[in-house]
Amino acid sequence: MEVRLTPAPVASDATTDPARPPRRASATPQVQPLRPDPEQMSSPAADDLVQRFSAYQQHNAELARDTATIRAAYAIAHEAHKTQKRASGEPYIDHPVAVANLLLELRLDVNSIAAALLHDVVEDTSVTKEQVAQAFGGEVAHLVDGVTKLSALEAQTKEEAQVGTYRKMFIAMADDPRVVLVKLADRMHNMRTIAAMKTESQQRNARETLDIYAPLAHRLGIWQIKWELEDRSFALLNPDKYQEISRALALRRDAREKIIHRVISRLRQALDKEGIKADITGRPKHIYSIYRKMERKGVSLDQIYDQLAVRVIVKSVGDCYQALGIAHGMWPPVPGEFDDYIANPKESMYQSLHTTVLIPGGQPCEIQIRTQQMHEVAEHGIAAHWRYKEGFGRSDASFEAKLAWLRGLIEWRRDLTDAREFVESLKSDVLEEQVYVFTPKGKIIDLPVGSTPVDFAFRIHSEVGNRCVGAKVNNRLVPLDYQLQSGEIVQVMTTKNARGPSRDWLNFVQTSGARNHIRRYFKRLRRDENEAAGRDLLEKELKRLGMSIAFEDIAQLAGVRTIEDLFANIGSGDITARTLVQRIVA
C-alpha cells in the first residue's frame, strides 16, 4: 500500500476527561498527506498486530499489502495520540490497539483493523477524514467516520445529543455492518477500563451499555461481546445482586464441574459408539443472564434450568439431530425446553439445537448441539458472515436478507424527531426479549415482546400493514392489539378497499417500523383532516382519564405555538395523545 504522509499536527494538551481526550481544532481546508513513522511501523506493537492478523490470512494473496496497511495505521494513530493520556494515565494509543485486538479475535478484514486503530483520530486529533481517505482509501475513511462520536453535536439537551449519536451510528451501521463491530469493540474496551472514571460516569456508561450496546451485540449474534458487556454493566448497576449470584455460583463450582465432567464423559462415549466425532465442553454461565431468568420466571437461583450446560460441536447437520436423539435416549428431556434453531434460525443468524434433560439426581442440564460453522456464527455473529462474504468475493443473499431489520433503522433519520421516543423505539427494537412467530408458509419472524398482528403485518410489507383489516393466530380470529407469543402462526387479513391504517394503532404497536409507516401515511393527509382527528383523539384521551386541561396549556407544554399545530401533530402521528398526556401527569 502506498501511504503519503507528513506528520499531522495533533492536539497538544492531555485530557482530564474520564471518557476521552479533548476535541481537535478545526481542520484546514488543504489536505496534508500523512506520513507514518518508519520506526513505529516496525515497532513491537505493530509487529504483534501483524502477527495476529497473519495467523488467519494464510490464503490471502494481498497479505504483504494488508500488513503494510496495518503498520501504517498503527504508526499514524501512535503519532496522532502521542501527547494524549487515558484517565488511568496510560498512553491513549493503548485504547485503539486494544480495540484492534478485539477485532482480530473476530478475524476481521484489514480495513476493519485499520479503522479500529484510527477510530478516534478524526474526533480527537488534528487528523481529518480527508487525510484518512487519502492515505487508506474511502472505505477505511467511511468506517472511521461511522464510529466517530458526536460530542460536539449541536443539540439542545444531553438526551437529544445522545439521540443524534445513536441515529448517526445506526445509519452508518445499516450501510456497512463493520461500523458497529468497531463500535462494539470500542465500548468493550471502555468497559474493561471503566474503573478510572468517576462513579457518575461509570453508572451512565453502564446503563447505556446495558440498554443499547449489549442488546445490539445480541441482535448481531456476537455473543462473546454481549455476555461481557452485560456482566460488566450489571456489576456496576446492581453490585449487591451481582455479588450474591457470583458467590452462590462460586460455592457450587466444584460440585458443578464434577457433574459436568460426568455428563461429558457419558455423552462422549455414547457418541463415539455411534461413530459421531464431537467436541464436547462445559458452557460457562453468565451472571446477568441468570439474573434475567430469575426475574422473568420469578424463581430462585436453584430453579434456573441451565446452570449446568454442555455444548456439543459436530461435523454435520445430520450429526446434530442424531446427537440430539442419543442425548434424549440417555436422559429424559424436560417438557417445553426444546428449541430447534437449525430449522428456524434466529434473525441474528444464530443456529443450534437446544434441549434440557434431567440427569441422575433429577438435576436439569442444558445441552446445545451445533456444527463448527454454526459455532463460528454463534460466537462471532455478523463478523463470521462478513468473513464468508470477503473470502468468497460475493454477497451472501441470506446474510443480506437477515440484515433487513438493520437497514430499516434508517427510517428513524427522517421520522423520529422526539428524543425520548427515539430512544424508547431503539430499545424496543433491539431488546433481548423477542418473540418468534411464523408466517403461514413457515418463515420465522422475530419481533419485540408485546408485538401485535399490526407489527407483524408491517414487518412483512408496508402495504400489508396499510391494508390490514384483521388477523388470525393459529387459525383463530384475534383482535389487532393481541400480543403475539413465540411459536404462533400469524395470518394477516387484508382487503384492497381498506381505507388505510388507524390512528388508534399508534397506541399499541411496538416496533418503530410499524409506527413510522403509520405516521407517514397520516402525514400525507390534508392538514385540516389531521387537525380534526388530532383534536378528537386528545379529547377522548382526556375524557378517558377524567382530566380537564386547557388545550392552550397542553400546546405550551408540548412546545408548539398554537393549538392547531398541536392537533395537527397528534393527527399526523408525530406524537400520540396518550404519550402527551402521560408526560403532563408525570
Key phrases:
5-stranded mixed sheet, 10 strands, single chain, RelA/Spo_fam, (P)ppGpp synthetase, Hypothetical protein af1432, 586 residues, Beta Polymerase, domain 2, 3-stranded antiparallel sheet, alpha+beta, globular, 55% helix, TGS_RelA/SpoT
- Principal-axes geometry comes out as globular
Name the beta content range. Answer: 5-15%
Radius of gyration (Å):
27 Å
User: Residue share in helices?
Assistant: 40-55%
Q: Please name the fourth-level CATH homologous superfamily of the domain at 38-197.
A: Hypothetical protein af1432
Please count the helical segments: 29
Identify low-pLDDT runs: 4-19, 150-157, 391-395, 409-417
Question: Span between N and C termini?
Answer: 59 Å
Structural class: alpha+beta
Strand order of the largest sheet: 1-2-5-4-3
Main beta-sheet annotation: 5 strands, mixed
Annotation, overall tally of beta strands: 10
Question: Which CATH first-tier class of the domain at 38-197 would you pick?
Answer: Mainly Alpha
Average pLDDT, rounded to a whole number, is: 81
Which architecture of the domain at 38-197 per CATH? Orthogonal Bundle
Reported by name, the CATH topology of the domain at 38-197 is Hypothetical protein af1432
Biased composition (Low complexity): 13-29
Domain TGS: 433-494
Domain HD: 92-191
GO biological process, one term: guanosine tetraphosphate metabolic process
